[in-house]
């Protein structure tokens, strides 16, 4: 892909992560790549330097995930651990919380998952019912979460709840750090049709007692703190999707140049070449939108970043789904073999269309907030 409008440091970061990703490559050992990327400072490029991070922002972190994915070695937990949890703790955590978590999140020695989705709330986060009740020395949490990624490998999960005095109505979100082995914090593995190392879990919070300092930020700050984490999540999901789309497209282009069943390689047929070219254009466009979202976010424009991050996630997911579909078709029968490893991306490419916010909810957002149309739900 052309990278000419990027600052030189970004191009260099891209090249370095790409080389690391290729060294690990498809079929990679997730934990080994995570550890090495952490040691090299890539997992914490967005976190403050005083806590061991790189002092950059989402522009840099999204490059890391995109390039790892484009090399066939995506690190899903980057969407959650440094991007959501690292950002929220950096921006709203106490000095103690920052000192306790950020150095480990930055060098990859600690990981944090993120749980907001609930079985009865789904896309409607205002309906979440995980409730925090104040005790003499802290909090008790009760509730259920679903589809939470990586809880088994994370040291803790950042759980989104609401306080018992704000049990109904629009969500006034509170964020709690729940260590993995806290009594009452149960998990059940949900079997997914996804060929990925990171697992999804249903969580039960059954009288989970937490100290007062488990709460990150202000219990009255509401959605502001939550969105400080959700916009990075959308930007990183875009990076995940663009990386996967590029990986699939690269493989298909290489195949189309080599495979010959008539006089010329199959890539000489426009029926094969045009969809590949279209996939490339769409991935480049999505990447531009992702860059806009990251730039606005890093500049502190949370509102502008929100709209751009939604659009980038939408564009990247759609581009990824089409790139993978095109790639599989380009390879004919080999598109479905284990050897070429593209068919497994068919389900994986759908993840970004569904999570963390579905395609339809983004269209709802754009229709209502950008275009000013009446809210439909
Ligand atoms: C692989 C994977 C990993 C995940 N990891 C995490 C994680 O780490 N942490 C976490 O908290 N969550 C996670 N999720 C959950 C994810 O964020 C949710 O699946 C997503 O938000 C959609 O919620 P839902 O599945 O309940 O779908 P629903 O809300 O039930 O939606 C179902 C369908 O209805 C549509 N729909 C709903 N409302 C409307 C409307 N008003 N207008 C039009 N269409 C509508 C949706 O677009 C969707 O197509 C993960 C999901 C997956 C698949």
UniProtKB/TrEMBL annotation:
Cofactor: FAD
Keywords in alphabetical order: FAD, Flavoprotein, Oxidoreductase
Pfam family, one: Acyl-CoA_dh_1
UniProt domain Acyl-CoA oxidase/dehydrogenase middle: residue ranges: 113-208
Domain Acyl-CoA dehydrogenase/oxidase N-terminal: 24-108
Gene3D superfamilies recorded: Acyl-CoA dehydrogenase/oxidase, N-terminal domain, Butyryl-CoA Dehydrogenase, subunit A, domain 2, Butyryl-CoA Dehydrogenase, subunit A, domain 3
InterPro entries (UniProt xref): Acyl-CoA_dehydrogenase, Acyl-CoA_Oxase/DH_mid-dom, Acyl-CoA_Oxase/DH_mid-dom_sf, AcylCo_DH-like_C, AcylCo_DH/oxidase_C, AcylCoA_DH/ox_N, AcylCoA_DH/ox_N_sf, AcylCoA_DH/oxidase_NM_dom_sf
Protein name: Acyl-CoA dehydrogenase
């Amino acid at each position: 892909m052309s990278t000419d409008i990027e600052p030189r440091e970004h191009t260099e970061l891209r090249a370095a992560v790409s080389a690391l990703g290729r060294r690990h490559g498809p079929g990679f050992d997730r934990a080994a790549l995570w550890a090495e990327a952490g040691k090299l400072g890539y997992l914490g490029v967005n976190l403050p330097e005083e806590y061991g991070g790189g002092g950059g922002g989402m522009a840099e972190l999204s490059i890391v995930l995109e390039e790892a994915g484009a090399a066939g070695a995506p690190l899903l937990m980057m969407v959650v651990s440094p991007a959501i949890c690292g950002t929220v703790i950096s921006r709203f955590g106490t000095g103690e919380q920052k000192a306790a978590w950020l150095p480990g999140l930055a060098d990859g020695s600690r990981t944090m998952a993120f749980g907001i989705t609930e079985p009865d709330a789904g896309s409607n986060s205002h309906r979440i019912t995980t409730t925090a009740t104040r005790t003499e020395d802290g909090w008790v949490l009760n509730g259920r979460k679903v589809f939470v990624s990586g809880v088994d490998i994370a040291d803790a999960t950042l759980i989104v709840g609401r306080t018992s005095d704000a049990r109904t109505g629009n969500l006034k979100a509170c964020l709690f750090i729940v260590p993995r082995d806290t009594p009452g914090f149960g998990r059940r593995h949900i079997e997914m049709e996804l060929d990925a190392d990171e697992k999804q879990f249903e969580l039960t919070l059954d009288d989970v007692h937490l100290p007062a300092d488990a709460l990150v930020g202000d219990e009255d700050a509401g959605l502001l703190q939550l969105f400080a984490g959700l916009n990075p999540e959308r930007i990183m999901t875009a990076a995940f999707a663009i990386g996967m789309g590029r990986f699939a497209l690269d493989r298909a282009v290489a195949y189309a140049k080599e495979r010959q069943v008539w006089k010329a390689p199959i890539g000489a047929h426009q029926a094969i070449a045009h969809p590949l070219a279209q996939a490339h254009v769409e991935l480049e466009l999505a990447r531009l939108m992702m860059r806009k979202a990251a730039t606005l976010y890093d500049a502190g424009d949370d509102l502008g970043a929100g709209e751009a991050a939604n659009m980038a996630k939408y564009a990247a997911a759609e581009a990824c789904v089409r790139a993978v579909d095109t790639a599989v078709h380009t390879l004919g029968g080999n598109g479905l073999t284990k050897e070429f490893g593209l068919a497994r991306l068919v389900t994986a490419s759908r993840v970004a269309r569904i999570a963390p916010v579905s395609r339809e909810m983004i269209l709802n957002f754009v229709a209502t907030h950008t275009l000013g149309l009446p809210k439909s739900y």
